[in-house]
Write a structure and sequence with these properties.
The complex is a heterodimer of chains A (252) and B (214). Chain A is mainly alpha-helical and 252 residues long. Chain A contains 13 helices and no strands. The chains are: A mainly alpha (252), B mainly alpha (214).
């Protein structure tokens, strides 16, 4: 049994008494093993933190509600005292620069430009085990074609898959949404992503929400985009940073 | 003014203004009214502090949310209690988190962060670092192939292995186990390579601590 197998067996609580005793003895003398075990334990906790994520979502909603009713919003960034004195001098210089920029170059990106800047096809190292199984309950071939950049055939493959009587799933909805973006069928993309968000929380939730935000921007629905971007930012998702940048920089 | 009077009246009606203990219970139970009360009464102070200390409104939201999550996790420990008012407790944690963030951003404010750390319970500091490490790990987890995420989730949910093999459409239970081991090893390897994770790992309440604290 190798080191990793021992750790996983220990965390699964499936060691025999003898194995357990031996493993505990090893932990005492091997700090590396202890560290590795701790990282695995923390990884388990981190990927199972549904409670915490649920609480964060609740806080995000509470904040939205509070912010909408709030009457004491700060007018802008409150500056530290030392900064206030230098403000006038800097402001005059900055105003000159900003005016120059304003006339030379448009200040803000429009929704289409934001989409172009942030949209990237979904990246995955998905590998298909077998493409020959006609009874496969998973649209592997369609997904594979998407990941290879063959979007038209991917969509055809999805059609063929569903015409065989298969029911849509979160995964198929997700990839149909992605393929639809590439084929510029934004309504279908919106329907697919919204369908995912309307279901129970899944591991594809935040990816769907990110692409949905971008499609909302592309189709002139900035307020819907903003709501979703706020969620992504507050949920500490992998898209938090980009969502934050869009919300900070651009008047969505 | 009128709004404050209404809040006070509502607060008393729901009995949530009386003590820190009641607020902590509300957090533990994820009570919407208590959470709203907390935002309404304590967020402006934290926001003002962050704005003054080189941050912006979004930073303030992050800090406030993180502070509440740390407290939320701690409320699950039956022994957890606070000796001061909830407001000052929350404010101290928020300051500590913000100084840590500033330090991360520009490597300054070390002294302030240390000072705030001294004012905090050791456990809450530990919980904060643990939460940060978990956030980082979760980022890695969500960047994994969705198939791999699903595989690990099924294991965490204690789904029987034969069922996992069937769901994942793998050829055998042994293959499923091997795949899981591979994905976990991959995840841990990537995490260990991240400098921020190592930085967080070495952040210690105790000086010269050689033993990881999580």
């Amino acid at each position: 049994m190798n080191r990793l197998e021992k750790i996983l067996l220990y965390l699964d609580g499936k060691m025999t008494k003898e194995e357990l005793l031996e493993f505990k003895e090893q932990l005492k003398i091997d700090p590396d093993l202890m560290e590795e075990l701790d990282i695995h334990r923390l990884t388990d906790e981190a990927t199972r933190r549904d409670d915490e994520l649920g609480f964060r979502e609740k806080l995000a909603n509470t904040y939205e509600e509070y912010e909408n009713k709030r009457s004491d919003k700060p007018a802008g960034k409150v500056r530290p005292v030392y900064a206030r004195y230098s403000f006038a001098a800097v402001a005059a210089f900055a105003a000159g620069i900003l005016l120059t920029l304003f006339f030379l170059h448009p200040f803000e990106l429009d929704e289409n430009e934001i989409f172009d800047k942030y949209y990237k096809p979904f990246n995955s190292d998905f590998t298909s085990r077998s493409l020959s199984d006609e009874h496969d309950a998973y649209p592997r071939k369609a997904i594979k074609l998407y990941l290879e950049g063959d979007y038209i055939h991917s969509l055809q493959e999805f059609d063929a898959f569903f015409s065989g009587g298969q029911s849509p799933s979160v995964v198929s909805d997700f990839y149909i949404g992605l393929v639809s973006i590439e084929n510029e069928d934004y309504n279908l993309a919106i329907n697919s992503f919204e369908s995912i968000l309307g279901q129970d929380f899944s591991y594809l939730h935040e990816h769907a929400q990110w692409y949905l935000s971008l499609v909302y921007l592309k189709t002139g629905k900035p307020h819907l985009a903003k709501q979703n971007l706020m969620d992504l930012k507050l949920q500490m998702s992998v898209y938090s940073k980009d969502a934050k940048k869009i919300l900070q920089k651009y008047p969505v | 003014m009128l709004e404050k009077i209404i809040v006070l009246l509502l607060g008393n009606t729901f009995g949530i203004l009386n003590s820190s203990r009641e607020i902590l219970t509300g957090i533990k139970e994820e009570n919407n009214k208590v959470l709203y009360f907390i935002y309404q009464n304590f967020f402006p102070k934290v926001e003002r502090f962050v704005l003054i200390a080189q941050g912006n409104s979004l930073d303030a939201q992050d800090v406030f949310q993180d502070a509440l999550v740390v407290i939320y996790i701690k409320t699950k420990d039956p022994k957890f209690e606070i000796k001061e008012s909830f407001e000052s407790y929350l404010f101290t944690i928020s300051k500590f988190i913000w100084f840590k963030e500033l330090r991360r951003r520009n490597k300054e404010n070390l002294i302030f962060a240390s000072r705030e750390q001294e004012n905090l319970d050791k456990d809450i500091v530990e919980e904060y670092f643990k939460m940060e490490r978990k956030k980082l790990i979760f980022e890695y987890f969500t960047s994994l192939d969705p198939q791999y995420q699903l595989l690990l989730r099924l294991f965490y949910d204690k789904t029987p292995i034969s069922e996992i093999t069937s769901i994942m459409n793998y050829s055998s239970d042994q293959y499923t186990k091997n795949r899981r081991n591979y994905v976990k090893a991959l995840l841990v390897k990537e995490i260990r390579k991240n400098p921020k994770f190592n930085e967080l790992k070495n952040e210690s309440f105790r000086e010269n601590s050689a033993i990881p604290r999580w």
